[in-house]
Amino acid sequence: MPESQLCTLTCDGKKLIGPAGTPLIDFLARYDIDLPHICYDKTLGALQTCDTCWVRVDGELQRGCTVQAEDGLNVELDNEDARQARHEGADRIVARHELYCSVCENNNGDCKVHNVINAMDVSHQRYPYRTKPYETDDSHPFYRYDPDQCILCGRCVEACQNVQVTETLTIDWEREDPRVMWDGGESANDSSCVSCGHCVTVCPCNALMEKTMLGEAGPLTSLPTAVKRPAIDFVKKIEPTLGFQPIFAMSEMDEAWRKSEIKKTKTVCTYCGVGCAFDMWTRDRKILKVQPVEEAPVNGISTCIKGKFGWDFVDSDDRLTTPLIREEGRFREASWDEAYRLVAKRFNEIRDEHGPDALAFVASSKCTNEESYLMQKLARAVIGTNNIDNCSRYCQSPATQGLWRTMGYGGDGGSISDLEQADLIFFVGSNTAESHPVLATRLKQAQKHRGQKHLVFDLRRHEMAERADEFIRPKPGTDLVWLCAISKFILDNGLEDKTFLEERVIQLDEYRESLAPFTLEYAESVTGIDASRLESLARMIVSAGKVCGVWAMGVTQHIAGSDTSTAIANLLLVTGNAGRPGTGAYPMRGHNNVQGCSDFGSMPGRLPGYEFVTDDDARKRYEDAWGVKLSTNKGLNNHTVVEAIHKGQVRSLYVVGEEMAVVDSNAHYVQEAFDKLDFMVVQDIFFTRTCEHADVVFPAAPSVEKEGTFVNTERRIQRLYQVLEPKGNSKPDWLIQTELARHLGATWNYPSPADIMAEAASLSPMFAGVTYERLEGYKSQQWPIAADGTDTPHLYLNGFAFPDGKARLYPLEYTEPTQQTDEMYDLHVNNGRLLETFHEGNLTHQSAGIRSQVPTKFVEVSPELAKERNIESGRWVQLTSRHGSIRLQALVTDRVTGNELFVTENATRNDHAINILTSFDADKDSDTPTFKEIAVYMERLDVQDDPPLPANNFRFGKPTPRRGVEAELKWNRADYTLPPAKARYPEKF
């Protein structure tokens, strides 16, 4: 660190040198000097509520959490006034908090109250403890709040207001007895709480506690209340005589006892592409809780409802635990050896009779990079076909195509930190707060605290739209037009970044010529956005110093998904917003490893690291390593393989962890294809709708039952460790693939996933420096990664990924959406994810808590359409497209407008699955289905039930935005006394 960034301060007469501007608590900790604190947290900052960190600074008492290290500072901890002030603060804490550590679920070594009171050697209860006039709030499905244990530190409030930025929690400092509130009320489950778990994670004691911990954390916590309460009362009765030390001695023995039973294992979330990492606490097979940690590179202390609480599926009784073989239309259990032998026999027979391209393989974006690598190796090296793909075909292939065309790499241009640094972000077809919630918290923070501007282009008013500086509703499928019109306006008016274009971009003339049709007036006629507003938006983008573009399936799942993705990249290039920090293109990856599954080769035309199978040099590298000749035939993808099955070209399909039967478009057509196969193998953790068509079902293991790595949306490779043993007779996917390959005659020998990664890294230049050692713990790497381990947090700083180092502006034409509305099919159907559920719901439906929040699938209907069609919330309706019909309940909401409907994706059955309605049309360049282009007519059915969303769903809550905990409201009370003076009402604060 340069000397200019260092400072020297004095602490109790000792000279200390360290980074200037560091909070004093953290500065002293570098020298193993512990300044007591409870409310302070590195992520949350100085809350100034606990009064346990007083120090004397340059002769004046100050709360230590507010002090920043600077040159010449004179700090006194060992000062009588400071010491008395700290102890006064600690005494007030135990006046509010009942110490019964040995029977407390939070006695696990990380209880801040316990640790600080013990370290400060607080000997006894100076102020009497008094219960609060409030009942324990047990209303929430995932956590409970105990006001009797709450010390009003405000950590939960700060986390909710300024980290999660849901802005649900406050402290009502004006009450006679202040209390934490949810939307100003006392019930957590009747509020805007999104169940992210931040509040529980940061609580320094047991006031907020995961319900999975209750009665499970320690040997004495399971005592029934009838025994536990008298035991607590007895200890508290003798406490004035004995003091706290015997209690702490007992609790430390209890804590040590727990450590031998509770296992804490680092893993990476199995849901969306944000890539949250955290410790998972388990006892035997029970998951006690998910505990995020500050050093997690993506999320820090953050989680969402799914990552924090959505793990019931892991030990579900519905898990597949033994192989299944279909005989005479029914499934029977089989041994692994029998199942392997049957699969190998049928694969070989079909290959011998019809050739290797008669077999096709689908890898899973929920599996690890190592498993993706083995899946494509199985297809290419063992069977001899390039018919291998993954579910990025359903969502992100168009974004990848757009980035390949313009910038060179098919991944996010930078890191989440770059998104945070941007001055302006435009979101196109991305419901970020629900689909990528933890990433959205970072952007909401930037907007709330730094004034980051948000432009949201979407059909539906979701949370990001509600918070946006500008919310724009284009007509469905017209995003390319307004994007091109803005680019044209910028170029026509000389507002482009001329230097950037001249030095770092080519094909400007061809691109400029292609923009001729895209006038603002034309854009207005096509998109419905006023020309004057488009001009204003263009000027906002140009005037912002650093701009990022964020998009998702609202863009990619259209006939022109690749072209619209390209148009986003073009706009960023025109304005010079690529190849520098705080800028770039950011397509949001949906599944936890949809990026990595493609990165490691599960694509029909590309090897690991995106090298073409037709590249002789690259192919030879793999042929030499694998000892086989590889095919150069053009492979089939997830979508085109269905047509090939119908035509009799593909006779066998092996699907791993993909619910193709309901997530591919025109689901009836897909299911009919499966029934035409000679032989089908499905590998999954549940008996899914797709499994129903299989001849053999392999029981796989979820992420927490194996080791490996994932790649998140920002190209970050992270390691996950095995938390639990595989359930029953199930096996990790990599082991199934290895053992199956051996039955097929291969000589694979992979003792562990680390050996698989070592092979992949040795063959793919993009991953040359990836090792498990470099990924140990919470360390991570962002590709491309040089052989020496140097990674690339931001792409293109030194040139774009083309031979000449220059980006390409790509000429475009507008392609109209398919499945247009008409007189009969008069309503357009949009569709997407919900915060609480993931995709079709095979995992999240296993959680009773999540089901209580979203018990069923539904269609959102606008108030004006509901009035016109006489529809109320809870009314069953039938939606019929040109391809099928589904029945579901209506939810009347102004999130949608006019003749626009929104259908949620959380469906596993044909009678309400959105893809019964979709056509088999696909993006013309990537074969991604046009999931967002659906026209229907709606019939009102004579069935009325309760509304599909419970009245206490968070969407009906009324948040209470605040700056934070607002400790000054406490200080301003007439009954508050500043330490070290004795408190008049210690039990209140």
Question: How would you characterize the overall build of this protein?
Answer:
The chain is α/β, with parallel strands linked by helices and 989 residues long. Helix content is 30%, strand content 16%. The chain has 32 helices and 35 strands. The strands form nine sheets. Strands 14-13-25-24-23-15-16 form a seven-stranded mixed sheet. Strand 10 (263-268) and strand 11 (277-283) form a beta hairpin. The chain is globular, with a radius of gyration of 30 Å.
- The proportion of residues in beta strands is 15-25%
- Radius of gyration equals 30 Å
Physical arrangement of strands within the biggest beta sheet = 14-13-25-24-23-15-16
Specify the structural class.
Answer: alpha/beta
Return the average pLDDT rounded to an integer: 95
Task: Offer a quick outline of the entry.
With 989 residues, this protein is α/β, with parallel strands linked by helices.
